[in-house]
Amino acid sequence: MQRSETNGSHHGEGDERGGGTRSRILEAATIHFAEKGFDGARTQAIADEAGVNKAMLYYHFQDKEHLYREILTSHFQVIFRQVFPTFIQPDLDARERLLTIVSSYLGFLRENPHLRSLMLYELAAGGPYLSSVVRSLFESIPGLDVERVFGQIGEMIEAGAVRPGDPRQFFLHILSLSIFPFAARPLLESIWELGSGEYDELMAERADAIADLFDHGLFTGKEAS
Amino acid sequence: MQRSETNGSHHGEGDERGGGTRSRILEAATIHFAEKGFDGARTQAIADEAGVNKAMLYYHFQDKEHLYREILTSHFQVIFRQVFPTFIQPDLDARERLLTIVSSYLGFLRENPHLRSLMLYELAAGGPYLSSVVRSLFESIPGLDVERVFGQIGEMIEAGAVRPGDPRQFFLHILSLSIFPFAARPLLESIWELGSGEYDELMAERADAIADLFDHGLFTGKEAS
DNA sequence: GTCTATAGGACGATAGAC
DNA sequence: GTCTATCGTCCTATAGAC
Known about the structure:
Helix content of chain A: 55-70%
Largest sheet of chain A: none
Shape of chain A: globular
Mean pLDDT of chain A: 88
Order of helices and strands of chain A: HHHHHHHHHHHH
Radius of gyration of chain A: 20 Å
CATH class of the largest domain in chain A: Mainly Alpha
Oligomer: homodimer
Strand content of chain A: under 5%
CATH architecture of the largest domain in chain A: Orthogonal Bundle
């Protein structure tokens, strides 16, 4: 990974001439960055996939890194705008709200196969860029910020709807149970020798399994700690 | 990522002359593969880190890829030998056994910082190699295999110690809650603006948080699904 | 076992015609 | 906007002396 820290945009946002070359490049690049990571992806392969010449990448985008960043930002934008607002939706009770978040999370990950590996490559690298993306996404959604989210959890606890505890652990539970099974999908499919159809079933049942865990815990005899 | 599928070992296992050059290379390579991934890591940087010449890498290891594989295998070996055997330890009841697994998992991840990103890079790539490593590790530990693990879970359910449900969902719960918080550490540290000390605390408290979730669920009013 | 030197190719990026 | 052709660099891997 040889990404540096620069910035500055480039050609117009409004050029949709040329048969959408720019967006074809974006799609092609998404595939290759998702499959090989930033360092493994080849500009030549991206150009071939998009059906254009390699030089076109540098006409539409400043360089490989800017192309990559644009893809990351746009992909994480969608999940933020789609999933997080549920947190501050007032017409649902705590349980309903949390389970809605979990299942919309699961649904979203299911429908966006490339997001999985884009996210993992960034996490692996320590994500200095991803964290700046996440930060600016928080800022771009009015009325949503880290404190607000934790505040909501705090209110649920005070209202007696949720067990008392560190809101961050609470948050980690939700994220972990939703994201990890998608992240590890190829590995688990291979180890458990499942077809992708079987794993899809597993993920479809996942929302219920998580709801059951949240409702009843894991053990039947509930001696406290 | 331009890893191909080859095999065949090389120089002797028993050459510990030369001041442990071979193992110094392994340590250096671990650092760079963990930080940059296979494609991002540079053989020159590994050699420099190990304090040897680049040509030494190719004396001790067939090529970059074989070096990488050896590192992956050895690192995942440790977690397998250390964590999984708890699953088949007979002198503990179900609850005790599961919570032991979780906390030894957490402890292990805490003490092996490089494992985190090595694992994530492999997951991102879809891990065709990692899955073969995991497979052979399962085979290398007598009395441990996928069916055995699920069998244990099945027995716990039949004995009434654990809520009925798909053992695979059960397994996903445990893995998710333990691994994800480590995987996402750098990102969450940045977003939550925590020092690494604070995140360490969070991870130290994690075993108890998971135990509480397993014991009581997440909600106080326990209306069933 | 360890080094120097370099082959040989791949890759990101650009110049310039159309 | 899109192409061809090419530059300059970086990087893995090896040849060969010590």
